[in-house]
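User: Here's a chain of 285 residues. Predict its fold as tokens.
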Amino acid sequence: MRKQKEKIDFVIHFLVVLVSIGCFFVVCMDVQKNLVEQVGFFQIAGIIATAVCVNFIKALRMYLLIFDFRISLHKFVKFYTITAFVNITVPLKCGEVYRGYYLGNMVKSTSEGYILVILDRFVDTLALITVVIGANMFLGTDMDLVYLVLVAFVCIFFTIYLLFQPLYTYWNHYLIYNRSSNNTLKALHLLEGCHKLYENIREIIKGKFIILYVLSLIAWMVEMVSMVTLSSRFTGKYISEYLRDILTGETTQYNYFFVIGSILIYGVALIMVTLRRKGNRECRR
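Assistant: Prediction complete.
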């Protein structure tokens, strides 16, 4: 049974990465030449340096989020590099579905894996909205559909978090004292599972939320400042267009080289931890 699951996992990982590589080449092949000709060396170097900084901060944020699960550095780097590559190349943030699946396998709970991904997205989105509000004050950023979607996501998550405890208390009491059947036991079991996830989220928020939020804030500020400075387009409209391009997977000068830089970082990081792990094994022998 375990070997069969490992085979299924391998096939899923392989197909997802293959699709991601396909998405990257389909989007970039037609624009690669023009983009390289229009961007100078120092701009490319600046964008790649930004990619290094931003990815390091995001990786640190994710590592702190799952730190309590005591995942080894090698496993974490492998997880982050692969899922970040998928997420940065597949449009509409569909890579988050794969990230939740991968993380669920690592923490031995699919539901907990997706909850951690949703929590990570919530913190990141909240930080992005904060940066957008700041940009709106100084640059006059246009209100875009992208912003409305982000605000809606944050509001829905926050509302569910606030309402869960009273709803859980009511339905738990109601099912215990007013119902008695097999379906009731299943409902209570599901309710307890949801409550366990809620408690895990509450513990993470109590102990790590501020740190995670500050890290996300720094990452977005670095990316936005770099994007506006290197493109020499100090307008709120350009920021709106950039965020929309990130979400939909459209390729522009800046995010093209940001993706290239990120992919190089993922490859180097993966090779380094693999070589380090191999060296540690040889030392033990």
